[in-house]
Amino acid sequence: MEALVEGTFARLFASRVHPRDVAVQLARALEDSAAAGSPATRYTVRLNPADARALLGDHPQLAETLADELVTLAREASLTLPYRPEVNLLPDEALKPRRVFVTANPARDLSVTHGITPLPAGSAPVPPRAFLIVEGERTVPLTHMVVSLGRRTDNDISVDDARVSRAHAQLRLRFGRYVIYDLSSSAGTSVNGRRVQECVLRPGDVISLGGVLIIYGEDEGEEIPNPKSQDSKADGYTQPNV
To answer: Which of 42, 166, 171, 234 is deepest in the core (most CB within 10 A)?
Structure first.
């Protein structure tokens, strides 16, 4: 989702909400509603008033663009929408700056709606041939849908450094993109110098686990094992002893 949005929007200052922050939350809401049985088509995005003014000031058509991206995302995930989704951005005094809260509502009753053609599903997205370069010393192909990172040796990627929590972060393949999640680590997780709770990764992103640097990359040339294989461990490295 972030890759689609980044093609449309320029980056904002790190101290402000970026459209990618909204896109990530919308992607999660779409995924959760689809898992519950029916993809939602009405989304309400609540933001701190200052963030809402800044976003809409820079991108007046943000709601419509995000709705278009939801259509693309749904098609790539083979989801059928009854009609084009609606996205509403609302200021909320109760939210702190840089916080984004999304609620998803079910589709309207189509029996009273005329002239609406369901949006068909498309082909599933192709998982990226992704890898991590850990501390500039080892390259780890990402062959799982879920990859755990931390100091414990039972993590998929174990990092023997006191700055790294035992269960520090997790990568998940969602809609054909890897997303990194911080697991309430003590030192935090950053992407390109910006502390994050979750973030869609793009090639060249520099991840910091409490100061331990990891580069995310994607290889379009060499074959990398299918990330949908959850049973096989990521190979190409040896887990160090803690």
So the answer is: 171
User: Which of 70, 74, 79, 85 has its CA nearest to residue 116?
Assistant: 85
For residue 84, what are its two tokens? 């084009």
Residue ranges in the chain whose pLDDT is less than 70: 1-16, 107-126, 175, 220-242
Please, what sign has the CA dihedral across residues 198, 77, 3, 219? positive
* pTM exceeding 0.70: no
- Decide if 44 contacts 122 (C-beta within 8 A): no
- Euclidean distance between CA atoms 16 and 29, whole angstroms: 22
Handedness of CA 151, 145, 205, 9 (dihedral sign): negative
Alpha-carbon dihedral sign for residues 70, 76, 77, 79 = positive
Distance between CA 162 and CA 58 in Å, rounded? 42
State the angle between helix axes of 62-76 and 19-35 in degrees (0 to 180), rounded to the nearest 10: 40
Tell me, what's the pLDDT at 22? 85
Cα–chain center distance at 115: 34
Torsion angles phi and psi, residue 29, rounded to 5: -65, -40
Residues in the chain: 242
